[in-house]
Design a protein that fits this description.
Radius of gyration: 18 Å
Strand content: under 5%
Shape: elongated
Distance between the termini: 32 Å
Oligomer: single chain
Helix content: 55-70%
Number of domains: 1
Structural class: mainly alpha
Number of helices: 6
Largest sheet: none
Length: 107
Amino acid sequence: MPNTKSNVASTTVTRDVRQLDTHTENIYESVVVIAKRANQISAALKEELGNKLSEFATSNDNLEEVFENREQIEISKYYERMPKPTLIATQEFLEDKVYFRNPNKEN
């Protein structure tokens, strides 16, 4: 699970692309690493949200119950306000918190 309490911006940030290739020496490789980490974060968040919302699942969906469940709405709003997975992954990458390796470079 990503650390969402860190200094991750919740909006788009202009970045110096020269900072992205310091770890890999290749901007495209860095983008792939960030994208794969963002996919991992997204999957973890989706699973976590699904688990929390499954507590509210009922066998009979009554229209009034859907609109009255404030707790479920607050949980959804919390996840909507969180930084996007790409922003979290980029910040983790820049802070050197992402483990990655390239098997082609190891040979």
